[in-house]
Amino acid sequence: MAVTIRGRTLSLPILQGGMGIGVSLDRLAGAVAAKGGMGTISTAACGFQEPDFYRNTQEANLRALARQVKRAKELARGAGMVAINAMVATTQYADSVRTALKAGVDAVVCGAGLPRDLPAIAAEVPESDAALAPVVSGGRSASVISRLWDRHFQRIPDFVVLEGPLAGGHLGFTKEEALQAQEGSPRPLSELLREVLEALAPFREKYQRDIPVFVAGGVKDGAEMARYMREGAAGAQFATRFIATQECDASQGYKEALLRARPEDITIVQSPVGMPGRALHSPLIRRVEAGLQPSPKRCIDCLVPCNPKTTPYCISGALIAAVQGDWENGLFFCGSNAGEITQLSTVSQQMDQIMEEWRAAQ
């Protein structure tokens, strides 16, 4: 059951997905790690609570990130692993990785684009021996990134997160594929897992070591995690279920919005990142769909592909509004099973429940 990643051990095969802006920071990540899993801090605009955030955005983000990594490690008390999730599509992607590595983070997970140069960025911080992992959507992306790292850096991923089309937030699928999944016809995660394991096999053989694969996106419980582990996964990543915990860094308003949600309240949105995403059908999304959302009034230059003159809304502003509990103006990212979460709990209770379900399915 325990998983070893670059010399570190997870006593529980559970990853907590990175959720931004501000949903998974030091409190949540530290609590998950303390229980023996991998807790993840989202680097996206993580300094939004700093007093100089809008005047000095980039420095505020990096200052807050370093503090959050160190605090999460303190909360972990030497157990589990503390990771960051750094989106390749953000303007501070490389700086965020460097900052987290210098602060002592155990792992760097990168999605929203292929982290082609992640090993080179990590090499700039030689005192760090953090694990490096891409988020992939299938065998093709797993093969591409492994070939690139092998050819240019003589390194392969230390683990891989496979996010299927039922995941929350940004998705590595086309809008059509995301809509098909939302309508009840997702590409099976088992099929994607088989593709990824096959794509990684040559690199496992060449480097004579394992590349653990954690499945994510619609993994409902420990019983499903057990099934995927029988199919070759090392464990699973959960995210939305950790929002409704006391330790989650989001406001009570965000948690209550999630607890009120029904399955029919979940929809597919088009993000300024250029990817589809899964979120609650909030008033903001309704205004965007109707063409009634006002243009952004300010820009913090957070995303490489975003043009503030043409974007339908500011994603950072919408995510900050959400984490603060502003239902009218927030973008509330969530996974496909959000409608099944009905009560607040703790990280310990959630992880115990997952493992009880896992044991029952053996």
Automatic annotation (TrEMBL):
Which Pfam families does the UniProt record give? Answer: NMO
InterPro entries attached here?
Aldolase_TIM, NMO
Record GO terms (molecular function) = nitronate monooxygenase activity
| Highest taxon of source | Bacteria
UniProt KW keywords: Flavoprotein, FMN, Monooxygenase, Oxidoreductase
Q: Which SUPFAM superfamilies match?
A: Inosine monophosphate dehydrogenase (IMPDH)
Q: What does this protein do?
A: Nitronate monooxygenase that uses molecular oxygen to catalyze the oxidative denitrification of alkyl nitronates. Acts on propionate 3-nitronate (P3N), the presumed physiological substrate. Probably functions in the detoxification of P3N, a metabolic poison produced by plants and fungi as a defense mechanism.
Q: What is this protein called?
A: Probable nitronate monooxygenase
Species of provenance: Flintibacter hominis
